[in-house]
Amino acid sequence: MIRRFTIQSIVVPLAVMVMLTLLVGYTAYQVTQTWEQAINKLTTELVQSQILNNIHSQLLQSHQAQQQGHMEKAVELWGTAKQQVDFLNRNNPSNTLVAPISLSLFLSKPNNIHHIPIILKESYFHANLKKQQTALIELQKNSRRITLLTTASMVILGLLLISATALDLTRLFQELARSRDLNNRIQEEERHRIAQELHDAVIQELIGLKRNYQPDKVDYLVESIRRICHSLKPQVLEDLGFLAGLELLVNDLKTTSPCDVRLNIDSENLSHLPKHYELPLFRIVQELLNNIKQHAEAQKANLTLIYEPEESPLLRLYIQDNGKGFDPHQKTSRLGITGVRERVVQLDGQLKIQSKLGQGSTFQVFIPIRPTVPHSKDNHR
């Protein structure tokens, strides 16, 4: 059975891959933001620790200068430390870098120059700069790893997206090519069938008519040509309707073969069948009955068409014969059945075949009936 491709077969995987790509991208963005914030925070702490270390060194030198009696140098070093604290507080409105409150208060009172040992005991003067530097370097390495991993993930997802879309497109083109080839084969078989009918039912009679004119043969020829024309273009559907078309197909099989066909239909319910289903269904029945005529060698056949729109939107078609049967699992040259299967698939339906050699055949067709036009119209062959 030919696989029916729709736009969803490409759009759905494409949409899924795009959503996955966006999800990975958003996750990567969030992770990158987190790492960036962590690096900024650690960098700020490292810079602040470095500045505090410088202030600690200046205050220590100021205290040593006092002990050595160099008060002028001590005051100068004290002033330098205070300027650094004031600079931090004055030029960092976002408080990313800020001097400790206790240090700012201590340096704001000049008399505290004689109590420097007290402030030097504060814990913020004893940060492990080497440890912070090591942590910052490691964090930067991890950030680069995350960036590379994210980039690789995006590249892989992009390749998967391209591969999935290309695969679906390749399958679609292959199915279109197979469908085109099958369509050509079906058309060739139809031409062969028409040529055979013209040869057997018309040309031979014309040859006989040429030799000996008989009015009854003229009537027979007219009827044969009319029947062939009806098979090519079912004008009866437009003139008399779908039910009359089915009766015409059944009567044609009765008159052109030894098979007795019984037609079982519910005329009232079938009158509610949407118009755009009539021609495809007519073609399906035509192909199946023609299969009985050409291959089955059946004596009896039953055609049942059930459509109960109030109970179910499913139309059911059953065609049974007591012919010689065949193995439905083996490849067959009966392109008519292949054409039926293709038409059923185009109507979103299902075809089931039950047959065994010497035990006849049963064809079951199930088609969901919708009020809108089916996605693939009959090609009016």
Brief write-up:
The protein has helices spanning 8-67, 71-90, 101-107, 116-119, 129-211, 215-232, 235-239, 242-256, 267-270, 278-296, 335-346, and strands spanning 260-265, 300-307, 314-321, 350-355, 361-368. The chain is α+β, with helices and mostly antiparallel strands and 381 residues long.
Structural description of this entry:
By secondary structure, this protein is α+β, with helices and mostly antiparallel strands. The protein has two domains: 8-165, no CATH class; 241-381, Histidine kinase-like ATPase, C-terminal domain (Heat Shock Protein 90), CATH 3.30.565. 65% of the residues lie in helices and 9% in strands. It is built from eleven helices and five strands, in the order ααααααααβααββαββ. It has helices at residues 8-67, 71-90, 101-107, 116-119, 129-211, 215-232, 235-239, 242-256, 267-270, 278-296, 335-346, and strands spanning 260-265, 300-307, 314-321, 350-355, 361-368. It has a five-stranded mixed beta sheet with strand order 1-2-3-5-4. The radius of gyration is 46 Å and the shape is rod-shaped. The two termini are 20 Å apart.
